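Shape is hard to put into words, and the shape of a protein is harder than most. The fold becomes a row of whole numbers, each drawn from a learned catalogue of backbone shapes. The outcome of that step, for a single protein, is printed below.
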Amino acid sequence: MTHPKTLSTADYLTAPLHTLESTDITAPAFKANPFGFYARLRQDAPVFPVQLKLGRLQRAWLVTRYADVGALLKDDDTFVKNPRNAMTPEQLRQSPTANLPGPFKALQRSLLSLDGADHDRLKVLVHKAFTPRTVEAMRSSAQAVADEALDAARRRGSADLMGDLALPVPLTVIGHILGVPERDRGKFVTWTKAVVSLGDRNPLFVIPTLLSFMRYTRRLIAQRRAVPADDLISALVLAQDQNDALSDDEILSMIFLLLSAGHETTVNLIGSGALALLQHPEQLERLRADPALIKPAVEELVRYAAPVEQGTERYAAHDTEFAGVRIPKGELVIGILASANRDASQFEAPDTLDIGRTGNRHLGFGLGMHYCLGAPLARLEAQIALNTLVQRAPKLKLAVPAADLTWRRSFVVRGLERLPVTL
């Protein structure tokens, strides 16, 4: 296998399809504008194999059309989350994600890595702790952090919106929800970066960081079992359904999921959403003039800016034909949310940002059994952060050309390294 590469947008439109199999869909240059590549696939090869580097090079099937992505996300019998329910013994031996070292196997007990009855049981217990009341109670905390960030930025006259706004809002909220002492919340930044880097690096490289995270979290769980508090870890410890309860490994895995699938994706929604508004000043002014548009605006930014570019991994449970393409048993299949959300068969003017868009049935939070549990919280945080930014920074401008911005190398998510602005 050759190593993955990144082509220009023009190349994607003209290159022979077979040459696109080596496209590096995790590369920063690709993340800057993946939409031309996906448009080509929707037109000519809606189920397409690429070489994906997840610890090693392996084949992954990209599903790009809206209807097909929806069907993939809902077919929990054919496309499963747990590789052990799909892979052959030989495939399992070669899979870095299926063969985590012993201490890390607990991280595979989350909602995103279980199927069937195991998933349903965990979801019932977690839902008892993750209620609408819990989410709504975070509104004042999120608003206070956003206001503090904007106060500091206005005094300076400049800001990095990733580090100064997009990160602090969800970090403070998730730390508060979990019951992490404020003095320790900075550690979560390091842990989160390690989590999202798993898509591009050999898992062995982040073992020390993950071990630190696990040791710390197990201590918190033990403390809450001894003396419960008013936080999510305590609620998970106490959650029961017909004498069933979560194990420490399941609680640990749920916290890991909140950090990776919850916190990090919201950071990118706020950051990439702000960039999209800055690149479309007429939409920025429209929101500034009518703050009540913030709810449809955030839905449109989820669709347009693609902070979660890909659905999480699924594996073919058996040899199957999907959208006319044969996919072998055990192979990785990825629904491309960013592509589905730009499909002209579903969205009028899909490449246009319209913060008042109606009937916006985007797939940005997934679909089916594995629909994002944290979607209400992500929406709340993004609505507060972005509306506060737009309303309190009337002279908001990019401080560098958009072409000079650096996108992070990553799998699943799509986000910026920095977003420098003037106010």
Summary: The chain has a mean pLDDT of 87. The domain at 9-422 is CATH 1.10.630.10 (Cytochrome p450). The two ends are 48 Å apart (CA to CA).
